[in-house]
Write a structure and sequence with these properties.
Shape: elongated
Oligomer: single chain
Helix content: 40-55%
Strand order of the largest sheet: 2-1-3-4-5
Structural class: alpha/beta
Strand content: 5-15%
Distance between the termini: 76 Å
CATH topology of the largest domain: Rossmann fold
CATH superfamily of the largest domain: Response regulator
Radius of gyration: 24 Å
Number of domains: 3
Largest sheet: 5 strands, parallel
Number of strands: 10
């Protein structure tokens, strides 16, 4: 007899119980239903679960009820291999951040923005990341299929401009979009590198908020690093810098080396760690970025070494002379020049030299 992995659904609203239970069953999960904190605790103690989907408020008469957070805490203690998704209509930004950073929720979704396809994709990703054998994939959630973009409703433009949010976690995407909308930005939110790059090429932005790891988790970033691949977030930062767009990184990657790299190589405006995220700090950094209005030179997209090569090129030195001056090979000079031409959108040495001289 086949044993299906189990999901715990903690929801007090009968309509949402039916909707969510149906989707979870379609994803190949056996659903245990609880409508209150005591019922949820009983089910958690009875057997392990691969996934938990929790409402924040478990009291129909009290919208300030936060029993869902107590269930999250119990999941972390009693069933640490279980992935938890918080789905609610009442959470403030502070509660949402706490659920993700302090209570270990896998993700966070608002009921008012609920989309069946997005939820199914999120369930699939949560199950694939959970420890244990035979992760279950939701039907239609094939590899490479991205969840639908969440576009925050455009607010009345107060002059802040347009902001691009690039974050693959639906909970963080919702939080950042809401904060930027409240700050007066028109927000375009997306979940993948390809989608973000397309928007950057088609639209103008005054601010970008980017996660470094767009593979669903920090562990995914380590996998990319071990194979020598460039994290997609860094590749987007190169594009925002080339376009003169101030960028703020909000990421779970918190090593000093990576933070220094983001500042040194990609000229970001600021860096905030998800583990220590505070709304006031984020909004203060956003306001500073907006007020800076600093024009960013095309040359800002170049690395320090590329600037050195370009400066010598502008002085009329040949590739061989540049190599001798910088103590590198001529092939390395050629590679630097290729990158310089691409970043400055020129095709000749004279065109690159002209842009260098204009900046002097």
């Amino acid at each position: 007899m086949t044993s299906f992995p189990r999901a715990l659904l903690v929801e007090d609203d009968p309509s949402w119980q039916q909707i969510l239970a149906e989707i979870l069953a379609d994803c190949g999960l056996a659903v245990d239903l609880a409508a209150s904190l005591p019922e949820a605790l009983t089910l958690l103690k009875a057997q392990p679960h691969r996934l938990a989907v929790l409402d924040l408020s478990l009291s129909p008469a009290d919208h300030n009820n936060t029993d869902g957070l107590r269930v999250l805490e119990a999941v972390r203690k009693l069933d640490p291999a279980c992935r938890a998704i918080l789905l609610t209509g009442f959470a403030t930004v502070e509660v949402a951040v706490a659920a993700l950073t302090e209570y270990g929720a896998y993700s966070f979704l608002r009921k008012e923005n609920f989309h069946r396809g997005q939820f199914r994709d999120l369930v699939s990703r949560a199950l694939a990341s959970a420890p244990g054998p035979n992760p279950v994939a939701a039907p239609g959630a094939a590899a490479g299929v991205q969840s639908p973009s969440v576009h925050a409703p455009a607010q009345v433009d107060s002059g802040a401009g347009r902001a691009l949010v690039v974050e693959d976690d639906a909970g963080w995407r919702s939080i950042l979009s809401e904060l930027l909308s409240d700050a007066g930005f028109q927000v375009r939110a997306c979940a993948s590198f390809g989608e973000a790059l397309g928007f950057l090429r088609r639209e103008k932005y005054t601010l970008a908020v980017v996660d470094l790891s767009l593979s669903g988790s920090v562990s995914g970033w380590w996998d990319a690093k071990s194979t020598g691949e460039e994290p997609e977030g860094y590749r987007l930062l190169a594009s925002t810098r080339a376009g003169g767009i101030p960028a703020i990184v909000v990421s779970g990657i918190a090593s000093p080396e990576e933070i220094q790299r983001a500042y040194a190589e990609h000229g970001i405006f600021g860096y905030l760690e998800k583990q220590a995220f505070e709304r006031s700090s984020f909004l203060r950094m956003v306001e500073e970025a907006r007020k800076s209005g600093r024009p960013v030179s095309e040359l800002a997209a170049l690395t320090e070494r590329e600037r050195e090569v370009l400066d010598l090129l502008a002085q009329g030195l040949t590739n061989k002379e540049i190599a001798e001056r910088l103590v590198i090979t001529t092939n390395t000079v050629k590679r630097h020049l290729k990158a310089i031409f691409e970043k400055l959108n020129v095709h000749t040495r004279s065109g690159a030299a002209a842009k260098a001289l204009i900046e002097k």
